[in-house]
Design brief:
With about 130 residues, the protein is α/β, with parallel strands linked by helices. The chain has five helices and five strands, in the order βαβαβαβαβα. Strands 2-1-3-4-5 form a five-stranded parallel β-sheet, with helices on both faces. It is globular and about 35 Å long. The termini are far apart.
Length: about 130
């Protein structure tokens, strides 16, 4: 006989260039019970895919392309359209000013490129549980 309540399934989306490393991370997530609803290569595609979903993901990991001069504006638009989605930034830039800007937009966490699957899982669980 099972006791207690079933653990709520976490849903996730990636807005990130597709890569073999992220393919492996996504497979690990699926194996651990995290549902990856979609992956897109940029914010515009991500917004389009989100608008087609019946149920939004709890968490969205967004790879930050700072070569796009409008990235912060796009992120603010994203957060305004989907305020209930918890955002985790993923970038290779380790800069306090950028971190503060992302927190002001509404990001819940910031992971550097090279972060392993376990650290991703911890961040996802932390932001999805408040």
């Amino acid at each position: 006989m099972e006791t207690g309540t079933a653990k709520e399934k976490i849903t996730l989306a990636f807005i990130n260039d597709k890569s073999p490393i992220l393919d492996l991370i996504c497979k690990d997530f699926v194996a651990s019970g995290i549902e990856v609803l979609f992956r897109s290569e940029n914010i515009e595609d991500g917004l389009s895919q989100l608008s087609a979903l019946k149920e939004l993901p709890q968490v969205c990991i967004i790879d930050l392309d700072f070569f796009d001069k409008n990235v912060l504006k796009k992120l603010q638009e994203f957060k305004t359209k989907y305020p209930s989605i918890k955002l985790i930034a993923h970038s290779d830039i380790d800069n306090e000013k950028i971190g503060k800007t992302l927190l002001a937009i509404g990001f819940s966490s910031y992971l550097l490129i090279g972060t392993d699957t376990d650290d991703f899982k911890k961040a996802i669980e932390r932001v999805s549980n408040g």
